[in-house]
Specification:
Blueprint lengths: L4 E4 L5 H10 L1 E4 L8 H8 L4 E3 L8 H5 L7 E3 L10 H6 L3 E3 L6 H16 L2 H9 L20 E5 L3 H11 L4 E5 L6 H4 L3 E2 L3 H6 L3 E4 L13 H5 L5 E5 L8 H10 L2 E6 L18 E3 L8 H20 L8
Parallel strand pairs: 1-2, 1-3, 3-4, 4-5, 6-7, 6-9, 7-8, 9-10, 10-11, 11-12
Helix pairs in contact: 1-12, 5-7
The structure holds (2R)-2,3-dihydroxypropanoic acid (DGY).
């Protein structure tokens, strides 16, 4: 039996590539460049399925020009804001993602950014590396204590809940806002705020874990940032466009926001150079899920979805 042909757009883990090559005819370019709109359109005539990352954009325009040969887009990501889902569905293309398997890795990075932002990790590291540490005082690099503080979480899906579990280890008081209230077991003592503004008012630390949708774009705008307690620390490991970056910059410059830890930016790759002027903004280049274990798990989940599809079953993570 001939194997389905798939395009793997980026450098997935070696274990993923090996398994993919065992079961499929794989097209993969080790140059690891993001696939352009033209690449996606051209490749759709050569393959039955694609495993893209969030770096490949399936806009309505691109989807309109896809060849009918392409039948499944098995994303190597939980976020699917790079895919126009209604357009893909209307074209009869199955779309899947990789929920669950990246929750712990992303929550770990959120924890690193929260602690690093709260405790001046960027300034401390710069001082040590530059050989500029020639002074100590009890007033030196005094940060904000995480232990026992109130943590607001927006979005209590897999990553939000994993972050809450880790934050409980720091005795944080967990508050959350979500489209719907969690079960008592999933809440595990966290306080639900149906109204986002009520959550903001009690968030000494705020971490974003909701998907990027037209409704959540610019969610943390100037008005909402103003509702946070003075000196709040904001963490974003979800998507850059959840935050109005100009408003965040202003809030950091005024001191209303005490610090920020960001893994996601409106412009990626590249980020926001204006943030680099502020050592109380700790930044990482969108690597929340970048651990060996999680990359393997994401790749295997994408392949599980493809396998189910080509067997004629409904893929477990069909959207
Ligand atoms: C995701 O899975 O959505 C991560 O941001 C990596 O793409």
């Amino acid at each position: 039996m001939t194997k389905p042909v798939i395009w793997i757009t980026r450098s997935l883990s070696a274990a993923t590539l090996n398994r993919a090559r065992r079961d499929y005819e794989v097209i993969w370019d080790p140059a690891d460049a993001p696939g352009s709109a033209e690449d996606i359109i051209a490749m759709s005539a050569k393959v039955d399925g694609i495993i893209p990352c969030h770096s490949e954009h399936f806009s309505a325009d691109v989807v309109a020009r896809l060849d009918p040969r392409l039948r499944i887009v098995a994303n190597h990501s939980v976020g699917v804001d790079h895919c126009d889902l209604p357009a893909l569905r209307a074209k009869g293309i199955t779309v899947t993602n990789t929920p669950g398997v990246l929750s712990d890795a992303t929550a770990e990075l959120a924890m690193m950014l929260m602690l690093g932002a709260a405790r001046h990790a960027v300034a401390g590291d710069r001082i040590m590396r530059s050989g500029a540490w020639d002074f100590w005082s009890p007033a030196f690099l005094v940060g904000k204590q995480v232990t026992g503080a109130r943590l607001g979480i927006i979005g209590m899906g897999g990553v939000g809940r994993a972050f809450a579990r880790k934050a409980r280890g720091f005795d944080m008081e967990i508050h959350y806002h979500n489209r719907s209230r969690l079960s008592e077991a999933d809440e595990a003592g966290a306080t639900y705020h149906e109204n986002l503004d009520d959550l903001l008012a009690v968030s000494d630390f705020l971490s974003l874990h909701c998907p990027a949708t037209p409704e959540t774009t610019g969610l943390m705008n100037a008005d909402r940032l103003a509702k946070l307690p003075q000196g709040c620390v904001i963490v974003n490991t979800a998507r850059g466009n959840l935050i109005d970056e100009a408003a965040l910059l202003q809030a950091v410059e005024s001191g209303h926001v005490g610090a920020a830890g960001l893994d996601c930016f409106v412009t990626e790759p590249g980020g926001n150079p204006a943030f680099a002027q502020h050592e109380n903004i700790m930044m990482m280049p969108h690597v929340g899920s970048a651990t060996v274990k999680t990359r393997d798990a994401m790749g295997f989940k994408a392949l599980d979805n493809l396998d189910a599809f080509f067997r004629g079953d409904t893929p477990p993570d069909k959207l």
